[in-house]
Specification:
heterodimer; A: 2 domains; 3-stranded antiparallel sheet; 3 strands; B: alpha/beta; Rossmann fold
């Protein structure tokens, strides 16, 4: 089973953390529902071209935070998680995405006011699209 | 916990070539790739593990038994796919299997049959009449089912086509799931190393550069693109520079320097594994 996980070479975020966060997003977004099996550590390390040590670290963190559970001899599965936790993941992912966009703009020497302007423009064009549809 | 294999202070001289000293411990569940240029000593290490070559110094233990001692009991706990295979030409795959299988207590006939089927291997042709790719597939089908705790693969995929390489990767992944095992492999196919290796044991003309966990290796170097021209002076960690781009072997120091000097990098990225290996062995 291939998971839609894409690792970034240019991100400062460690690889295990990228995997951890993307799996959280897949679980919170419902693409990986409760009870869904996750690939084995060896098989995911092959797909993502990482070591098993990295995948094990991501899985251990996810298990510790209650997103997944491992059952001896059967494998790893998506755990039952509360809606509050799902919401929290979604909110923090949106925050992170916007923060990244702001970082990009700052690296091009835009001022905060200019970034706000761009943001407003983008929001307005979305609103127009919604009105038209 | 005892490892599957322990290599301690291993050294071997062959004419003008000197290998080692090398230290290497294999934990169960891990795959280690030996990487280095041609003639860097990768295959020699596998031969030393198999006791086909005697070391000058140091020792090797497989499951806590010395391989260079008089007791050869350890041999059924290791499977080895050499490159090239010598002495098989006159025999068919079927005959070779009859020679090999009884020697290994955990021989998995089912896995053998599955591999013959997936690789589409002819068991009735003499080995010499098989194509190089089919010879490699047959060798692998006669090696994995031995189900030994330690598996040594010397260039297992050189002659395989793309679909066969995919089958090979799947087979290795499935094989590793089935127990506390370890693999040591050499390969010039970078995809084998990227998809399978957890640790890279890097060799430079016989000298052991180090053994690195794959992600640690990925974090060793970084490439930066600067918005302005580079300063004249040497930047901390600087390894290579071209135009407004530098490769650093100490990203922490380089970034601290950029910060102090108010230098902005427009972009930064980890290097590809192939680039990293090249930097380490040249």
């Amino acid at each position: 089973m291939e998971l839609p996980i894409r690792l970034s070479k240019s991100s400062r975020e460690p690889i295990y953390h990228q995997i951890e966060n993307q799996l959280k997003a897949l679980i919170a977004g419902g693409q990986l529902p409760e009870g869904a099996p996750l690939p084995s550590i060896r098989s995911l390390s092959k797909d993502l071209e990482t070591s098993v040590i990295t995948i094990r670290r991501a899985y251990q963190n996810l298990e510790y935070q209650g997103f997944i559970r491992t059952s001896q001899g059967k494998g790893t599965f998506v755990a039952e998680i509360e809606d509050a936790l799902k919401q929290q993941v979604k909110v923090s992912e949106v925050y992170q995405t916007i923060e990244n966009a702001v970082d990009t703009a700052l690296s091009y020497d835009y001022t905060i006011d200019q970034i706000k302007e761009i943001f407003t423009e983008v929001m307005e064009s979305h609103t127009r699209k919604d009105d038209n549809s | 916990m005892n490892g599957i294999m322990e290599i301690s202070n291993l050294e071997k001289g062959l004419d003008s070539f000197h290998l080692g000293p090398i230290n290497l411990t294999l934990e169960p569940g891990t795959i280690t790739a030996l990487v280095g240029n041609n003639g860097s000593g990768k295959s020699t290490i596998l031969k030393l593990i198999m006791n086909l070559v005697k070391p000058d110094k140091g020792n090797i233990k497989v499951l806590n038994k010395f391989v260079h001692g008089p007791d050869e009991g350890w041999k059924t706990t290791v499977s080895y796919q050499p490159q090239p295979i010598i002495g098989w030409n006159a025999f068919s795959g079927r005959t070779l299997k009859k020679f090999i299988a009884p020697y290994y207590p955990n021989w998995d006939e089912h896995l053998f049959e599955e591999m013959v089927k997936r690789f589409d291997i002819s068991l009735d042709k003499k080995f010499i009449h098989l194509s190089p790719g089919s010879q490699q597939k047959l060798c692998l089908a006669l090696t994995l089912p031995k189900n030994t705790p330690l598996l040594l693969l010397d260039e297992p995929t050189t002659f395989m086509d793309i679909p066969a390489k995919q089958v090979f990767l799947d087979m290795i992944v499935a094989w590793m799931e089935r127990g506390d095992r370890a693999i040591v492999m050499t390969s010039h196919q970078s995809s084998d190393i990227m998809k399978l290796a957890d640790y890279l044991c890097v060799l430079k003309r016989g000298e052991w550069v180090g053994t690195y966990e794959k992600e640690a290796l990925n974090n060793m170097f970084k490439r930066y693109w600067l918005s302005d021209t580079l300063p004249e002076e040497r930047i901390p960690g600087e390894l290579l520079r071209t135009n407004n781009q530098i490769i650093s072997n100490n990203p922490d120091d380089t970034e601290a320097y950029f910060h102090n000097q108010h230098i902005k990098s427009s972009s930064q990225a980890r290097l590809d594994l192939e680039e990293i290996i090249t930097l380490l062995v040249e």
